[in-house]
Specification:
single chain; 274 residues; Alpha-Beta Plaits; Double Stranded RNA Binding Domain; 2 domains; 4-stranded antiparallel β-sheet; RDM1_RRM; DNA-binding; RBD_domain_sf
Length: 274
């Protein structure tokens, strides 16, 4: 049985990239984009769909760049779409990329927080995984030497905040668990009474997102030929706990009401996907 392995990293391989030519301008550009997304996402999750107008010296129309997470799914999409009209009257030309990737781009980097959620939900479903904070706490500033972190500078009051987070990522249907850890910090100028609260909310959200991304980097999605998905881990579930966040309080002892999120952020603060 053939298998395909997906990682939570930015796809850079030529074998995962398709170029599409001869797209007619018979529909508005936004509708053509939607048709491309609908067509190629039927073969697997997409990292990127980029639609561009033809150069001035070429006939009117568009070309597109389609990037998959999976080389096998990209190849299947190329074979089933090349030479077919699909959503227009003339056939499309679809080819795998032959462009050489620069060396400095050849090393994979982690997906963004949003991309991790998209890929996990596409392959596993919204109830296929959960994330839960183990610890999250404001940490002492590395440059702080006693006293307060707030200082006066040029007549303005400024400060620095630092947060650490340890998060657990679980896959209940596959019996797998892994962890991710992150530390973030930022300096700010106190220009109003709500600045400190807003900065704390922002950094708490950011450190949680970074910890989730770090946890996903240890995950492998194994796509089987029969359509089923398996989850494997690159590391053992009892991953390291950075010294920077050892000893922080448990999340159930932490009062979120102390740092209320902005109204637009309430959905972002719910960490459990159910």
């Amino acid at each position: 049985m053939e298998v395909d392995i997906l990682e939570f990293v930015v796809p850079v391989d030529n074998s995962k990239t398709l170029f599409v030519w001869d797209i007619q301008p018979s529909l508005p550009e936004d509708q053509i984009y939607d048709r491309l997304v609908g067509l190629f996402s039927s073969f697997g999750p997409l990292y990127l769909v980029k639609l561009s107008s033809n150069a001035l010296l070429h006939p009117p129309g568009f070309s597109a760049l389609i990037k998959f997470y999976s080389a096998a799914q990209a190849l299947k999409a190329q074979r089933f779409t090349d030479g077919h009209s699909l959503f227009q009257s003339s056939p499309l030309k679809v080819r795998l990329s032959s462009k050489q990737t620069p060396h400095f781009l050849s090393h994979s980097r982690p997906l963004s927080h949003t991309r991790c959620l998209e890929l996990a939900n596409y392959c596993l479903g919204f109830n296929g995984w959960t994330s839960d904070i183990i610890t999250l706490k404001e940490l002492p500033d590395k440059e702080e030497v006693g006293g307060s972190k707030d200082e006066e500078c040029g007549g303005e009051r400024w400060g620095r905040l630092r947060f650490g987070c340890l998060l657990q990522l679980s896959f209940p249907h596959h019996g797998q668990m892994t962890r991710g850890a992150a530390v973030v910090e930022d300096s700010f100028t106190c220009t109003g009474p709500n600045v400190l609260l807003q900065k704390r909310c922002k950094l708490q959200r950011l450190v949680r997102e970074k910890a989730l991304v770090q946890a996903f980097t240890t995950v492998l999605l194994i796509l089987l030929e029969n359509g089923k998905v398996m989850v494997e881990l690159k590391q053992t579930p009892d991953q390291f706990i950075p010294e920077e966040i050892e000893g922080v309080i448990q999340v159930n002892e932490f009062s979120w009401s102390e740092f209320p999120p902005d109204e637009d952020d309430y959905e972002e603060w719910d960490l459990t996907v159910s």
